[in-house]
Amino acid sequence: xxxxxxxxxxxxxxxxxxxxxxxxxxxxxxxxxxxxxxxxxxxxxxxxxxxxxxxxxxxxxxxxxxxxxxxxxxxxxxxxxxxxxxxxxxxxxxxxxxxxxxxxxxxxxxxxxxxxxxxxxxxxxxxxxxxxxxxxxxxxxxxxxxxxxxxxxxxxxxxxxxxxxxxxxxxxxxxxxxxxxxxxxxxxxxxxxxxxxxxxxxxxxxxxxxxxxxxxxxxxxxxxxxxxxxxxxxxxxxxxxxxxxxxxxxxxxxxxxxxxxxxxxxxxxxxxxxx
Length: 275
Known about the structure:
By secondary structure, the protein is an alpha/beta fold. It has helices at about 45-50, 80, 95-100, 105-120, 120-135, 140-145, 155-165, 185-200, 210-220, 245-250, and strands at about 5-15, 15-30, 35, 60, 65-70, 70, 90, 170-175, 205-210, 220-225, 230-235.
């Protein structure tokens, strides 16, 4: 089992005392595609970042179990975490415009990620970068390797980000809204690419998203989060048959081409949804 989370709690100090952003979250992940869905602020990204110790210092994190491949993340030193972050677990951010270094070429950034783990020469790093760009289906990898981020489209920038994360041969990919800034056709290409890479490399994938149809078709299992808690977990193919009222409410708010309505329903939240 790659990831084991049990009873995760994340708190932040506030002017009114303590705010609990994540409460009693539990989930597991092996070599599969796990989708985590929910509205903004439901705790999806916080849960993933806690696994990599990437939360701000003021965050208070506790858990009965927070393990990556048997390693206790809460007890791990910064040296141990550096051997996990970027090497064994990669994080793909939402928008490459804000994640890539604007004054370094794409090839230099991928080569840097490769050399940090492989310890090769600069030339070997650039050769590896071109090979990785080819693996993520860039048509002219050598040209793209010499391009700066502002010279790349959104889809190409996201492929560069994926190549950077793949450079150290990770066992786990955490993708935080990786396609939200892309149009529908490019989104489909990126998802197909990630699916092929996960299958070919026998990796685990944690996909954070608010797009239920996307997760239903792409993932193996789905965890639904609401107000910092897990309210439901089910097979992705069974998402349309969900019984939890929050998941049903999310599905009902989606527009339909087969059953068009003059006005989409507004979700009415219930305090009984939370344990």
